Every structure is written in structure tokens, then in C-alpha cells.
């Protein structure tokens, strides 16, 4: 546009010049006109050159602007890239922060857990310390008790030795006592004619059989057990023998054997003993047995006859009253009747007989044997 305006102005100037030249043409020569045309052509070339310069300047300016734009775009892209990187970094940082927060929370939880464990350990430690103290106390106590036990063990040992010696002495005494009992028993058998076999406890129990004799004291093959067994068996035997008196506090008025007859009929054999006591005093069974007879029999008056172990019979005569019936079983000490004066009697007394196989034996033989047999050891 500027070029067109400038062109018009140049053309106007050219027209004016032409008009002036035409007016003067007459006055001037053709040569002058040519010179003017050359000058105008020179001016036109200068104008074209100026236009080119302007064009070049504009193009350079455009080029510079383009370069600036390119630079700006590059910078913008760079900035965008930086921004993107920065955003990515921010995201990474945020993620890192979250990770760190998670880790921190975990660490806190772990810390709390550890703190709890520490507390537990501390409590355990306290308990362990208490337990240690208790254990030490228990150990000391155990040591003390052990000492006491050792002392007691030593004392027990000494006591055991003393007891052993005492036992030996007791055994020796027992053997002596047993010997006396054995002698008493042998004497009883000899004096009464009783058959030892009949009193064999083993045979009575349907056992071994064979002659029953107590073990000989001091024999090599006998122990304390054998001695004790013999004692028990002897007790059993004694229970079956009339070793007790039928009257406890009676007075012996007539012994066993030959004597002068109380009714004045010269000397006669007294098959029993007479025991004077008050009328009505209970007469007691001297051993366990069975009532063989209970009633009146001639000179004996009211009489009770007991049957004991094999062939052994006891008689109780001149009773005032009978308290048992034939066939009845009695134990030692049972009242079988009362003292009286029935039959051939001079006053209240008991005529007491012991018979072995029908043969009269002095009742005191049994009483004395019983006394020896029942003698306590010592
Ligand atoms: Zn008599």
C-alpha cells in the first residue's frame, strides 16, 4: 500500500514534469528531454533499490521474530517438560512422603510393641528376681532340713542299734521264759497223763498232724516267729485246760489224795479238792467245754459235769443250785451253779474234780501249770 501511494506520487510528479517539458519542448531541444528521461530512470532504479532494502529489512525482522518465536516455543516446551518433571517429582515426593508416613506409623507401632515387650520383660525380670530370692530361701531351708535329717538319721541309726541290742536281750529273756513254759507243759503232760497229741493245734485244725511239742529254745533253725507261734498255740491250749479255779476266794478245806474221812470212816481217797465258800457264791467254769451232766447224783448231791478237750472232765459237787443244762456249751468264767451243801456234805463247800480219761488228777496240777504257762515274760 505504501508502495502504491509512493508510486502515485512519483507518477504525478512525472506527469507534471512532462507537462512542463511539453510546454518548454518548443523551447528546448530533444536532447534536453532525453537527459531528463535518464535522470528519471535513475530515480526509479534508486526507488527500486530502496524498496528491496526495505523488503530485506522486513524479511530480516520477520526472520528474527521467527527465531524469537522458535526460541520462545522451545523455552515453553522446556518449561512444560520441567513442569512435568517437577510434577512427577512432586508425585514421587508425595508417594515418598506417604511411604515415610506409613513407615513412621509402622515404626511407632513397633515402638509401642517393643515398649510393651520391655514392660513385660521388666515385669518378668522382677518376677525372676523374686523367684530367685524364693529359690535361695528354699535352698537354704532345704539345706537346713537336710542337716536336720542327717542328724535325725544318725540318731535313728543309734536308736536302731540300741533297739537291736534290746531285742537280742528281749529274745534271750523270751527264750528263757519259753523254756520255763515248755517245762511247765511237759510237767503237766507227765503229771496228768494228758496226751500231748490230743492237744496238737495243727491236728485239731485238721492240718499236719504228728506229735505237738513246743520248739526247743535256742535251736538253730528257730526264729522269733516260731517262738511267737508256739506262744499263741500254747495260749490256745491253756484256754482249753482247766487252769482257772471255779471259786476265786475259796479256802482249801480238803486236798486231793488219801485223807481221813470227814465222816469218821477211816482213811479214804479224795478224788478232788474241797473249797469252802459262802452259800450261793457262783461256781465258774475253769475252761471252755460242754455240759455232760447236770443234776443230782447220790453222795455228790447236785452236780455239774463238764467235758473239755479230749478225755478231760471236771466235776462240781454239793451245789446249792444248778444253772446249766446238759449239752450246753460254756466258756471259761461262766457261772454253772452256786455253792451249797447238797449230798454227803458237812457244810457249804464245793467238791471239785478233774479227770483225765476217767482217772482223777489233782486240780492244782492244772492251776500251777496254768500259772507257769500264763507267767508273763521277763
Ligand atoms: Zn470233796
What's the number of extended β-strand segments?
12
Alpha-beta content class: alpha+beta
Name the poorly predicted regions: 202-212
State the share of residues found in helices, binned by percent. 55-70%
Q: Could you spell the SSE succession in H and E letters?
A: HHHHEEEEEEEEEEEEH
Give the amount of beta strand, in percent. 15-25%
Structure description:
- Helix content is 58%, strand content 16%.
- Helix 2 runs antiparallel to helix 5 (363-373).
- The strands form two sheets. Strands 1, 4, 5, 6, 7, 8, 9, 10, 11 and 12 form a ten-stranded antiparallel beta sheet that branches. Strands 2-3 form a two-stranded antiparallel ribbon.
- It is built from five helices and twelve strands.
- Strand 11 and strand 12 (359-361) form a beta hairpin.
- Mean pLDDT is 84; it is low at 202-212.
- The protein has helices spanning 2-25, 30-192, 201-204, 224-240, 363-373; strands spanning 251-254, 257-260, 267-270, 273-276, 282-284, 289-296, 302-307, 312-322, 329-330, 335-339, 349-356, 359-361.
- It is of the alpha+beta class and 378 residues long.
- The structure holds zinc ion (ZN).
- The site of zinc ion (ZN) has 5 residues, from loops.
Amino acid at each position: 500500500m505504501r508502495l502504491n501511494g509512493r508510486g502515485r506520487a512519483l507518477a504525478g510528479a512525472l506527469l507534471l514534469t512532462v507537462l512542463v517539458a511539453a510546454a518548454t519542448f518548443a523551447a528546448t531541444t530533444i536532447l534536453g528531454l532525453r537527459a531528463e528521461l535518464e535522470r528519471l530512470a535513475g530515480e526509479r532504479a534508486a526507488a527500486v533499490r530502496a524498496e528491496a532494502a526495505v523488503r530485506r529489512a522486513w524479511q530480516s525482522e520477520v526472520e528474527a521474530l521467527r527465531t524469537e518465536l522458535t526460541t520462545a516455543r522451545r523455552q515453553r516446551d522446556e518449561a512444560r517438560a520441567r513442569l512435568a518433571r517437577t510434577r512427577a517429582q512432586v508425585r514421587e515426593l508425595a508417594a515418598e512422603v506417604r511411604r515415610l508416613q506409613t513407615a513412621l506409623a509402622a515404626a511407632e507401632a513397633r515402638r509401642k510393641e517393643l515398649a510393651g515387650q520391655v514392660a513385660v520383660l521388666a515385669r518378668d525380670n522382677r518376677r525372676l528376681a523374686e523367684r530367685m530370692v524364693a529359690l535361695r530361701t528354699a535352698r537354704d531351708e532345704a539345706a537346713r532340713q537336710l542337716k536336720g535329717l542327717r542328724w535325725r538319721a544318725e540318731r535313728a541309726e543309734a536308736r536302731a542299734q540300741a533297739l537291736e541290742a534290746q531285742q537280742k536281750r528281749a529274745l534271750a529273756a523270751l527264750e528263757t521264759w519259753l523254756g520255763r513254759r515248755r517245762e511247765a507243759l511237759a510237767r503237766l503232760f507227765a503229771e496228768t497223763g494228758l496226751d500231748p497229741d490230743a492237744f496238737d493245734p495243727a491236728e485239731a485244725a485238721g492240718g499236719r498232724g504228728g506229735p505237738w511239742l513246743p520248739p526247743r529254745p535256742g535251736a538253730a533253725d528257730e526264729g522269733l516267729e516260731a517262738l511267737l507261734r508256739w506262744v499263741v498255740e500254747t495260749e490256745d491250749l491253756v484256754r482249753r485246760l482247766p487252769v482257772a479255779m471255779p471259786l476265786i476266794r475259796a479256802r482249801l478245806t480238803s486236798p486231793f489224795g488219801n485223807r481221813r474221812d470227814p465222816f469218821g470212816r477211816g482213811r479214804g481217797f479224795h478224788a478232788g479238792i474241797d473249797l469252802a465258800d459262802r452259800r450261793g457264791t457262783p461256781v465258774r467254769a475253769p475252761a471252755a467245754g460242754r455240759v455232760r451232766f447236770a443234776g443230782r447224783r447220790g453222795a455228790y448231791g447236785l452236780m455239774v459235769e463238764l467235758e473239755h478237750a479230749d478225755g478231760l472232765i471236771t466235776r462240781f459237787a454239793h451245789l446249792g443250785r444248778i444253772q446249766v443244762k446238759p449239752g450246753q456249751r460254756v466258756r471259761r468264767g461262766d457261772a454253772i451253779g452256786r455253792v451249797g451243801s447238797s449230798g454227803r456234805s458237812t457244810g457249804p463247800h464245793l467238791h471239785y474234780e478233774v479227770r483225765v480219761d476217767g482217772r482223777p488228777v489233782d486240780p492244782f496240777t492244772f492251776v500251777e501249770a496254768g500259772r507257769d504257762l500264763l507267767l508273763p515274760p521277763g
